[in-house]
Write a structure and sequence with these properties.
Elements: E1 4-7, H1 8-37, H2 46-70, E2 72-75, E3 91-96, E4 102-108, E5 119-121, H3 125-130, E6 138-143, E7 146-156
Parallel strand pairs: 1-2, 4-5
Antiparallel strand pairs: 3-4, 3-7, 6-7
Helix pairs in contact: 1-2
Length: 158
């Protein structure tokens, strides 16, 4: 398996989630299964089946996180040369030339991307258009809603 790029903050978030799953959620679902077993007939025991399903999700997520973390290439953005060029892990302030609004995104690995937290995947069209560009440059890329154009107003390495 190839290496998976992660920011150091993203790796910490995944480690915390893994710890939570192993120390809190896994024991809780094991207790729920044990309690449901005590209620008798397992064929018609909805609590038991729900707990087993939840256990499957938890175990699957644990395996996924362990795999990602074991194959991670952790990149500490603060240790990169601060050239003003857009690179993996940096935060980019953009000015939307159409709507005249400002927006800020951090370019992160695919597994840590979360648009609600303004973290975009390095494989996304906007990130691919941004990588290698510098402050003051304009970019254009194809989005699902059509062509979008932005000007890079600042690049932060935090």
């Amino acid at each position: 398996m190839s290496q998976i790029p992660l920011t150091s903050a993203g790796a910490e978030r995944l480690k915390e989630e893994l710890k939570e799953l192993k120390t809190v959620k896994r024991p809780a679902v094991i207790d729920a299964i044990a309690t449901a077993r005590e209620h008798g007939d397992l064929k018609e025991n909805a609590e038991y089946h729900a707990a087993r399903e939840q256990q499957g999700f938890i175990e699957g997520r644990i395996k996924e996180l362990e795999s990602v973390l074991s194959n991670a290439q952790i990149i500490d953005v603060t240790k990169l040369p601060q050239t003003g060029r857009v690179v993996f892990g940096c935060t980019v302030d953009l000015f939307d030339l159409e709507s005249e609004q400002e927006v800020s995104y951090q370019i992160v690995g695919d597994v840590e991307a979360d648009i609600n937290e303004n973290r975009i995947a390095v494989s996304s069209p906007i990130a691919r258009a941004l990588i290698g560009k510098e402050e003051g440059e304009e970019i254009a890329f194809e989005a699902p809603g059509g062509t979008k154009e932005y000007e890079i107003t600042a690049v932060h390495y935090k």
